[in-house]
User: What shape does this take?
Amino acid sequence: MKKIFLFLLLVSWVGTASVFAELEISGFVDVLTQGQQGEKTTFGMGAFEIDFVSEFSSKVSFEGAVVVEGEEVGLGQTLVDFKLLNEDKLGLQAGLLDMPFGIDYQVFATPDRKLVTPPLVTELMMDGGWGDIGVNFYGSVAHLNYNLYAVNGMGEDGGVPVNQLTDNNSAKTVGGRIGISPVKDLELGFSYACGPYLDGTTKEAFSRIGGDIQFAYERLQIKGEFVKGGEEVPGAGENESDGFYLQLLGEATEKVYGVARYGYWKPKGGDKVIRTTIGLGYDLGENISLRSEYQINGETPSVDDNLFSMQAVISF
Assistant: This one.
C-alpha cells in the first residue's frame, strides 16, 4: 500500500511538472454476478483501475496504472517508453510490463476482453496474466513486428508459477515474440520465454513456447493460441503441460456481439481439462458494456462446476 501511495504522489508531481505537456487520466470499474451449479449466485466487484498517460516529449512517454481488486491494491502496467527510431521501428519500454507473450496480454484490461473470464491457457500457464519488471525492445518493419525482453521472471508458490515483481535469483527470464502479417487483417505469431525460477532454495528452469493467430473480416474476428511449457523439478524430471484456445467473435450490430471460445489444458501424464465458453455482449454506449457468459467445464473425474457470469463494465 505504501508503494501505491508513493506512486500516486509521483503522478501528482509529474502531472504539474512543466516537462509534461499533458497528463491524461482514465480508467474503468466492473461489477460481477456469478453462480455455479448447486451454489448461490453472488454479487461482487471486479477490478477498479485508474490509468495515467503523459509525454515528456515526442520520443519519451510515461504510463501507469493503479488496480484495486478485492482487498488487493497493486500496480498495473507502469513504464517509461522511449521511441528510439522513427515510425515505430525500434522502441524501449522499462518498468512493470504486461508481458508480450502470445496475444492475450493485449486484452488484460477488462474493457478490452469481450468475455468475462480469460482462456484456460492464461489462467493456468501464465498466472492469469503475466506481468513482470524489466525491459522490452519492440518495433515493426514492413509486415513484421517484434518484442524482445529481459525481466525478473516467474517464481513459485505452492507449485503454481506466479508473477515476480521482485527478483528471486541472480538470473533473468528472457524471451520475445515475432509476429508476421502476410496479408491484411491476418497475423501469425511465435513466442518463447525461458529462465530460472525459485522453489524454496533451488533454482529451477522455466520455459514457455507458443504460437498464435489473429484474423478479422468485416464483423468477424478469430484468434487462438497454443502454449507449451515446463518447470524442471529435481528428482522428478520436468513438469510439463500444454494448452490451447480458439475464440470466435461475431458482431450482430454495432452494439451487439456474440463470442464462443473452446480451450483445453493438459499436464503431462494427467487428465485434460476442457472449457467451452459462450458469451453475449451489449454496448450501451462508448463507455458502458454489459456482458453475460456461460462456462462449461469438462474434467476427469467429472465435476459439476459450470459457471454463469454477468458483468457491467464502465470506462471513464
In short: Residues 79-315 form a domain with the Porin fold (CATH 2.40.160.10). Helices lie at 2-16, 120-125. Residues 157-162 have pLDDT under 50 and may be disordered. The two ends are 24 Å apart (CA to CA).
